[in-house]
């Protein structure tokens, strides 16, 4: 129960008392006391009426929420990569999830690198299914031999940072010496956007006297980044390995189609001791942000997550769908015309469907597009995702009125021309689309739910807290309210 009315009442009486003190200076106190006492009683009466009205509305809304949860026909269809939901209400029914990946031979199920590519902040790591799109590592597999780095004392061995056999390249950089590593590769057709990245670790815990710079160029335009060991993108490696792995990267969209992509690593050791630089997974790939590592001269077609029998979603006048995602990218990392698809349910002729996506042409804002017999309508939010942050997204509808709710806040409500279930494809895609693997979400997804009823803000916030309490602790009170009310009704 909220007690804001008490604070408001105290503020009102404080203002009244201050006004009284000003008026009382040199005047008849008896008359003023009677006048201000009467006004104070009026304030008190109004506050009591407002309090009881709010209390009645609060209990009425809570009763409606409980009725929604208790309704026997409500179902919550759930996709969870962790485990099926333990929440008994709303009623839960597992989705039949179809998960495909071309990375099975490259990234085994327990791959350290694949599973740990999430937020640097451990508190914000939500876990879930990693859904990426098509990427190609343009670095050639024989790059090390071609440039005869053995003359620098470099050696190769199988890496400790992956759960499969890949080479890592070990360079010993002597005190006050420099190391330069070059990559020169042909570009992809019709792509101007590229990212150069690599993994590395060292023999030192701290190395403030080492300057590390990476560059990417087409011979005319050149972009470089200087990395400090405290500021690099850090991968999580099990403590038993005893190492910290860093991943610097630099991205650029060239003004015209490049003829060659030139990337290099420049390292300068200004300390008195030798510095061991261990390099792994050098990558030049399309796009303006790094995806999870790919072995040189290989490609990744990405993951596809789909659900059949999806007509259950929009065949009711009321409903809610929700999911959580955590992107690898921020709004400024998106290439124009390549928009990450978060939820895709569109017919092959594009005349009917529902999409939730981050619009790359509009600063990555999360939007909903509904298509009914070729007519399109939109819900547009002002939310542009940040790299590594977790987001809860929910779309609820009552007939043709729909709300887009992000992180528990109703960011936009609008009339949405909703296609009926029998007009739509039977397959829903989560974090990808069948049209192009370039438009995949490149994000971690968790807990895709479909409810067969319109859920209130209170229920949505409660469900958010139940799924990710460490990321959304501010919604704990909503979960407690509903839990307490449920126990009373039992």
CATH architecture classification of the largest domain: Sandwich
Could you say how many structural domains there are in total?
3
Continuous helix count = 6
CATH fold label of the largest domain: Jelly Rolls
- Low-confidence spans: pLDDT under 50, at least 5 residues? 54-60, 66-96, 102-119, 236-240
CATH class of the largest domain: Mainly Beta
Rg computed from alpha carbons, rounded to a whole number of angstroms? 29 Å
Please give the number of β-strands. 28
Assign an overall shape. Answer: globular
**Largest sheet report:** 8 strands, mixed
Overview of this protein structure:
The protein is built from six helices and 28 strands. It has 490 residues and is α+β, with helices and mostly antiparallel strands. It folds into three domains: 4-58; 71-104 and 302-489, Sandwich (Jelly Rolls); 135-298, Galactose-binding domain-like (Jelly Rolls), CATH 2.60.120.260. Strands 1, 2, 4, 19, 24, 25, 26 and 28 form an eight-stranded mixed β-sheet that branches. Strands 3-18-27-20-21-22-23 form a seven-stranded antiparallel β-sheet, with no helix packed on it. Strand 21 and strand 22 (365-372) form a beta hairpin. The chain is globular and about 85 Å long. The model is unreliable at 54-60, 66-96, 102-119 and 236-240 (pLDDT under 50).
């Amino acid at each position: 129960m909220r007690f804001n009315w008490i604070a408001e009442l105290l503020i009102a009486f404080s203002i009244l008392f201050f006004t009284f003190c000003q008026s009382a200076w040199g005047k008849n106190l008896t008359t003023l006391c009677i006048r201000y006492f009467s006004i104070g009683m009026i304030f008190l009466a109004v506050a009591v009426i407002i309090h009881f009205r709010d209390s009645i509305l609060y209990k009425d809304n809570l009763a409606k929420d409980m009725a929604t949860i208790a309704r026997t026909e409500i179902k919550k269809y759930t996709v969870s990569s962790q485990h099926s939901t333990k929440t008994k209400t709303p009623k839960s029914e597992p989705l039949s999830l179809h998960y495909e990946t071309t990375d099975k031979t490259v990234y085994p199920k327990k791959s350290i690198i694949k599973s740990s590519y999430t937020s640097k902040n451990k508190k914000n790591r939500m876990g879930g299914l990693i859904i990426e799109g098509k990427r190609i590592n343009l670095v050639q597999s024989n790059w090390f031999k071609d440039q005869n780095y053995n003359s620098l004392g470099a050696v190769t061995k199988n890496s400790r940072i992956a759960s499969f056999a890949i080479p890592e390249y070990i360079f010993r950089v002597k005190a006050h010496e420099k190391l330069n590593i070059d990559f020169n590769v042909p570009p992809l057709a019709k792509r101007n956007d590229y990212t150069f990245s690599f993994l590395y670790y060292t023999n030192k815990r701290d190395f403030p006297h080492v300057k590390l710079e990476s560059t990417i160029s087409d011979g005319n335009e050149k972009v470089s980044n200087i990395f400090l060991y405290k500021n690099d993108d850090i991968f999580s490696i099990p403590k038993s390995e005893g190492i910290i792995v860093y991943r610097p990267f630099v991205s650029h969209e060239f003004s015209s189609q490049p003829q060659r992509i030139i990337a290099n690593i420049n390292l300068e050791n200004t300390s008195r001791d030798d510095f061991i630089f261990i390099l792994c997974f050098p990558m030049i790939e399309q796009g303006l942000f790094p995806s999870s590592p790919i072995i040189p001269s290989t490609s990744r077609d990405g993951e596809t997550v789909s659900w059949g029998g999806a007509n259950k979603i929009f065949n009711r006048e009321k409903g809610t769908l929700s999911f959580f995602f955590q992107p690898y990218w921020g709004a400024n990392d998106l290439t124009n015309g390549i928009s990450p698809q978060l939820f895709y349910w569109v017919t092959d002729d594009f005349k009917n469907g529902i999409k939730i996506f981050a619009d790359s042409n509009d600063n990555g804002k999360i939007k909903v597009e509904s298509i009914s017999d070729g007519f399109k309508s939109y819900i547009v939010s002002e939310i542009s995702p940040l790299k590594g942050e977790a987001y809860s997204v929910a779309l609820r509808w009552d007939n043709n009125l729909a709300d887009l709710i992000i992180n528990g806040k109703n960011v936009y409500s609008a009339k949405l021309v909703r296609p009926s279930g029998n007009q739509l494809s039977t397959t829903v895609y989560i974090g990808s689309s069948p049209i192009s693997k370039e438009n995949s979400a490149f994000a971690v997804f968790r807990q895709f739910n479909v409810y067969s009823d319109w859920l209130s803000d209170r229920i949505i916030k409660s469900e958010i807290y139940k799924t990710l309490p460490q990321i959304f602790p501010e919604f704990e009170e909503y979960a407690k309210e509903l839990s307490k009310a449920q126990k009373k009704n039992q």
